[in-house]
């Protein structure tokens, strides 16, 4: 359970970029921030301003044009990328190549060597998620003279392959138009809006919430801790009888059992990347229907 026990908006403007990564020279420049991270001794780029968790770490990595990660590295946890801006090209320990653009997702299993670089004409912003907290210094830089610890393939989940799911129980009344997607979902019996397309996990759920202008996702209570990151538009968060506006790249952390309503208060579709810190059971009695964008 996360150490934060009330709904908290982590303001992007308060998260100072960290340049702590080694060998920051031209061609290998990048910085990171954390909305949610582990406590002392664990990965967390903003230990004083982020929310603390025992289940996951979530942050943003910025890669300038023409730069890359230095070599391949692997983690003791699964690492997931959701691309917000620009395009990346990535490699794994078997030399397989993936290329991902805005709103695509790359799922990297624990132990899989990987690295990405910025390609095309734009700098890269991507959200990274660890499906568990990792001690500092645990990740390993790897080359092909070393034993290859990779046992599972890296998976590319294309946004264009994810069919939106409209939860009929939530949109039966006017003013509640919104849909959900899963980049990473649970296995059979657990929540997964895009089964057979999304990556599967026993630890986290990751997806996208889209709310149309003038609409809202009604008040509900989460069974697990959740994080919502605003990546487009404007929203108002209602919790504990107060309203707070979220700005671009602000993160809303919700401890398990807390209630909130998310309302689109802007003139364009609002998009939020969500992370469930534990896999949820499939909604009982809920009906979902596919809708083509």
Layout of SSEs?
Layout: E1 8-10, E2 31-37, E3 51-52, E4 57-63, E5 72-74, E6 79-85, E7 87-92, E8 97-100, E9 105-108, E10 114-119, E11 124-130, E12 140-142, E13 155-157, E14 165-167, E15 178-185, E16 199-200, E17 205-211, E18 216-221, E19 226-232, E20 235-239, E21 242-246, E22 251-254, E23 259-264, E24 270-276, E25 288-290
Structure description:
The chain has no helices and 25 strands. With 293 residues, it is mainly beta. The chain has a 7-stranded mixed β-sheet, with no helix packed on it. A 7-stranded mixed β-sheet has the order 3-2-4-11-6-9-13, with no helix packed on it. A 4-stranded antiparallel β-sheet has the order 18-23-20-21, with no helix packed on it. The model is unreliable at 285-293 (pLDDT under 50).
């Amino acid at each position: 359970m996360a150490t934060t026990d009330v709904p908290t908006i982590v303001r992007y403007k308060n998260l100072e970029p960290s340049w702590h990564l080694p060998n920051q020279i031209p061609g290998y420049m990048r910085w990171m921030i954390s909305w949610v991270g582990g406590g002392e001794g664990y990965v967390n780029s903003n230990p004083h301003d982020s929310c603390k968790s025992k289940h996951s770490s979530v942050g943003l990595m910025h890669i300038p044009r023409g730069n890359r990660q230095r070599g391949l590295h692997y983690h003791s946890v699964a690492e997931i990328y959701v691309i917000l801006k620009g395009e990346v090209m990535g490699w794994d320990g078997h030399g397989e190549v993936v290329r991902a653009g805005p709103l695509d997702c790359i799922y990297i299993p624990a132990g899989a060597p990987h690295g990405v670089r910025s390609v095309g004409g734009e700098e890269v912003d991507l959200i990274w998620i660890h499906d568990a907290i990792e001690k500092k210094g645990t990740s390993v830089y790897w080359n092909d003279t070393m034993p290859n610890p990779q046992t599972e393939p890296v998976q590319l989940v294309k946004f264009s392959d994810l069919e939106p799911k409209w939860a009929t129980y939530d949109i039966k009344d006017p003013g509640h138009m919104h849909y959900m997607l899963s980049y990473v979902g649970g296995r059979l019996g657990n929540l997964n809006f895009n089964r057979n397309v999304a990556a599967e996990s026993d630890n986290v759920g990751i997806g996208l919430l889209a709310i149309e202008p003038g609409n809202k996702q009604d008040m509900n209570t989460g069974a697990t801790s959740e994080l919502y990151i605003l990546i487009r538009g404007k929203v108002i968060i209602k919790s504990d009888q107060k309203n707070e506006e979220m700005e671009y790249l602000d993160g809303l952390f919700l401890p398990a059992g807390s209630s909130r309503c998310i309302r689109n208060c802007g003139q364009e579709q609002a998009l939020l990347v969500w992370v469930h810190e534990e896999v949820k059971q499939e909604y009982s009695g809920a009906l979902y229907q596919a809708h083509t964008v």
